[in-house]
Structure formats: structure tokens, C-alpha cells
Write a structure and sequence with these properties.
By secondary structure, the chain is α+β, with helices and mostly antiparallel strands. It contains two helices and six strands. The protein is globular. One of its GO terms (biological process) is negative regulation of biosynthetic process.
Length: about 90
């Protein structure tokens, strides 16, 4: 999967960071130490890690992902990352 969307709420304490959904590469999720979580009333599950977004971004850069976009939506920060398939 060449694209990855991660997000986190803006708050004083670090984490959790949402790093993918149930269709995200499980090897990448294991590398990040993310666990699959299902929020009550949602029709989807998502991977979460207790690491803050900065740590997650650093880890993803080490395996070839790069940030291509970032946005703030309300109290949430969202990053879109891409990894070349070469």
C-alpha cells in the first residue's frame, strides 16, 4: 500500500495516534506497534498506537514513507504519507 493516512487529536498528552484501518498493511502496523481497535457504533476498525505523531512519522520515514500533505481539521491533525513501490 503506497499511501497511509495518520491522525491525532491536539491535546497536551501524547498519543494515541491513528495509523490505519483494517485494510492497512499488517507488517507496517506491527512495525509501528499498532493494535486494531473497534470503536463502538463505528462500522470500521482502526489501528492505534500510543506513540505521539512525531514518533510515528519518524518511524515511517525510516521505512521509506514521506509526508506529502498535512492538514488541521478542528482539533485533529492529519498527515498523508506516500511510499514509492520501487
Amino acid at each position: 500500500m503506497p499511501h497511509l493516512l495518520i491522525s491525532t487529536k491536539i491535546r497536551l498528552e501524547p498519543g494515541p495516534t491513528i495509523v490505519g484501518d483494517e485494510q492497512t498493511d499488517p507488517e507496517v502496523m506491527a512495525y509501528l506497534g499498532a493494535k486494531l481497535f473497534h470503536e463502538k457504533y463505528n462500522i470500521y476498525s482502526e489501528y492505534r498506537t500510543d506513540d505521539c505523531a512525531r514518533i510515528v512519522l519518524d518511524k515511517l520515514e525510516k521505512i521509506g514513507f514521506r509526508v506529502i500533505s498535512m492538514a488541521g481539521v478542528g482539533q485533529t491533525c492529519i498527515w498523508l504519507l506516500h511510499k514509492d513501490l520501487n
